[in-house]
Amino acid sequence: MIDSNPYACRKWPLMAGLFVAMLGASLAAQAQGLRLGQDASPRLEQRSAAVDADFIVALVNAEPVTNQEVRQALRRIQQQIGQRGGSMPPADQLAREVLEQLISERAMLQHAVESGIRVDEASLLQAEQAVAAQNGMGLDEFRRRLSAEGINPSAFRDDLRRQLLLQRLRERELEGRVQVSESDIDDALRSRRASVAADPMVNLGHVLVLVPESAGPQRLAELEARAQEAATRVRAGESIATVARAFSDASEAATGGQFGMRPHSRLPELFVEVTRNLPVGGVAGPVRSGAGFHVLQVIERQESAAANERVVQTRASHILLRTGPQLSEAQALERLAGMRQQVQSGQASFEALAREFSQDGSAREGGDLGWSEPGMFVPEFEQVMNALRPGELSAPTVSRFGVHLIRVDQRREREVSDREQRELVRAQLREARAEDALEALLQDVRGRAYVEFRDPPQP
């Protein structure tokens, strides 16, 4: 299977959401040596040798879109929906949507050519060599692999050329349309600081005494008494870290029982309510939740806008299995569940399994993805990662790139300089405006294209 580095959450706009666009965007990015996280999925899929009948379903400025193109794209999308267990729309409705996507892509390609954008053979060869190298192959071996998986290397090059055209069009068109001024950054920072002031930061010490669902009245009273003893010792001046190590069933007990600085919005509502009016050093509890009895101590507060001058970094590792013709999503989920069990039972190390099985560049590092900051990974990956505590292993997790087993190794906070804050805000504003500008460009090009619909597509 084709390998790429898809984890940074920087978006590539899909013209049609199809295999050609998905794969081509990733290849083009890799050819330029960028660590991008395109909305792409580099999967090699078996091409259909023939269809029962082929005919023109639409003309885009006199260039045909055929029923065969629609059917090939439709089959890929149906396979993806089926693997995810999603609700399948009616085939004729989905075929019409696919046709619209193909029309938009065709119009954009024509606009790129008319605008004088070209992809020379040297650039195309460089992109092809880049993806071959990413998969640990020479170019000849890569082309043989394409043929073995039913993809004509010449057709692959044509697909790649089209996607390079689209990427260059995007870069050129958006460069002039997307501007971020210093006053824009100032406004965004003021808004962010106002939001932080409305969502103060607090570091809570935590002791949890778990209550099993099966606990009867006597056991419940014993556990409540244990929590009360913990609270009494903290109120008497014993450190929350010492008490947590002795009493707490929470995973953070081993590291001193502290959550670290978090905004109220990232804490359970119960914790916020019982500590809101406490001074630093104040203790709440025991308080009861569905999990058990909690004792909470306010370690530190930040009420000012300075709270946004810190960022939480996460060091995570993962094992990635890519899905495709040779490995379904269900099979990948099952295999990673087995690996998770091996790690948890001590039968194998996470690092050894990552080196042997993970299908991305982090494999040789035992799955280590290095330190990351918020927004570096795609949302479906980052949401699961953020919910893990250090040392914790996720359940198999599906993203647009395959199925992951994620482990959080460490977390830390660091100060963010004024300059870094401004550059981060600049990048965020550019990204948001680029999405809007791209949508406007697509609508403009599609609106100016002459489209003649012929026979409706037959899925």
- Poorly predicted runs of 5 or more residues: 1-51
Major β-sheet profile: 4 strands, antiparallel
**If strands are numbered along the chain, what order do they take across the biggest sheet?**
4-3-6-5
Question: What is the residue-mean pLDDT, rounded to a whole number?
Answer: 79
Structural category is alpha+beta
| Topology, number of strands | 11
Topology:
Elements: H1 19-31, E1 56-60, E2 63-66, H2 67-83, H3 91-114, H4 121-134, H5 139-148, H6 153-177, H7 182-198, E3 201-210, H8 217-235, H9 240-247, E4 262-263, H10 269-275, E5 283-288, E6 292-302, E7 310-321, H11 329-345, H12 350-357, E8 368-372, H13 379-387, E9 397-399, E10 402-415, H14 418-448, E11 451-453
Helix pairs in contact: 1-4, 1-6, 2-3, 3-6, 4-5, 6-14, 7-14, 8-9
Description:
There is one protein chain. The protein is of the alpha+beta class and 459 residues long. It contains 14 helices and eleven strands. The chain has helices at 19-31, 67-83, 91-114, 121-134, 139-148, 153-177, 182-198, 217-235, 240-247, 269-275, 329-345, 350-357, 379-387, 418-448; strands spanning 56-60, 63-66, 201-210, 262-263, 283-288, 292-302, 310-321, 368-372, 397-399, 402-415, 451-453. The strands form three sheets. It has a four-stranded antiparallel beta sheet with strand order 4-3-6-5. A hairpin with a 2-residue loop joins strand 9 (397-399) and strand 10 (402-415). Helix 1 (19-31) packs across helix 4 (121-134) and helix 8 runs antiparallel to helix 9 (240-247). The longest helix has 31 residues, at 418-448. It is elongated and about 85 Å long. Mean pLDDT is 79; it is low at 1-51.
